[in-house]
Amino acid sequence: MNKFEFYSPTKVIFEKDAEQRVGSEIKKWGGKKVLIHYGGSSAKKSGLLDRVEASLRKENMDYVMLGGAQPNPRLSLVREGIELCRKTGVDFILGVGGGSAIDSAKAIALGVPYEGDVWEIYEGKAVPKTALPHCNIITLAATGTETSASSVITNEEGWLKKGYNCEFNRPRFTLLNPELLYTLPPYQTACGVVDIMMHTMDRYFSPGGINEMTDRIAEAVLRTTIQYGAVCMKEPENYEARSEILWAGSLSHNTLTGLGRKGDWAVHQMEHELSGKYDVAHGAGLAAIWGAWARYVYKEDVMRFARFGVNVWNLNLNYENPKETALAAIEVTTDYFCSLGMPINIPELIGRKATEEEMREMAVKCTFFGNRTIGGIKVLGEEDIYNIYVESNK
Q1: Which CATH number fits domain 190-392: 1.20.1090.10, 1.20.1410.10, 3.30.559.10, 3.50.70.10?
Q2: DSSP-based three-state secondary structure for 46
Q3: I want to staple 97 with a disulfide (CB 3.0 to 4.6 A). Which of 29, 39, 159, 347 is the partner?
Q4: What is the gyration radius of the CA atoms in the chain, in angstroms?
């Protein structure tokens, strides 16, 4: 096991009607004026925002509201939120919604005290010295951003999608109410299940040597997500199933499932280019690229993929030919994505084949225009990334 530091300070409040505690919890942190940052109309129609506002008023808190967060959250809205917070004296950020709203809220929290443009932080040209405190009410089991140190934003100029990790991105607390997931469309539920799996798998399929405790945690998260994700698709108001995948989502991305491993993240990086260019749902993009990536890299660690098949999918290990088990594990994973209604290649994702020019462009952008390689289990350069896009484009 490699050395590591584990720091996951976010307070988790998991219960029915958890959102009604938001006012009292923010008050404990000294918040006086709150930005409520949310996505579309569903938070209003469901009555969630009404309950949030009532909780804040009960604690005599002032608040302003900013809606409009959307999948692949936009830098322009982040900038708007930063100016609103500065103008109105906001001292605490509350994100309400799915991962996009929470990531956008994190970016606003970073940008308010920063004197330059917040995109400089995401480009790696600046390091924040502080941020506004923030919390969230999550309405989608997917990104794990409710407890993570990461945030991903899309810049409409050039459609560049970049993530930034730092401890300032850690929410002070998160409020998890499984009932808030009942009204999710099946497609969003499926995208969330894939995202949870991929946050775990991008850590699991990476160098790290013997790492039994962490690997077993990761395998448990995967097995639980696979089992209860399928139940959620058939029974959207099954409280136990929604509870299991909601908690699995948080555990998948608070670093617990990858402690002692370097992580790979190639699939996430390649997907960022897909969703940045085609504006597709993140989970769907991950499902579309994973199989092509896995078939491209599995020979670097056949036994890792074989173990995945045995411990996650209950496959029998072919001791004489573990390659067979590894390939079967890849196939059963993509079959599961199909069962959720997810695309497993680029044509299924965008409704057509990507052009040669588009795939070349995404490969170049993924290397930050020749300034980096990606991946851990196999280091990938521009040509490798392009080849994986080609494989996924069949």
Answers
A1: 1.20.1090.10
A2: coil
A3: 39
A4: 20
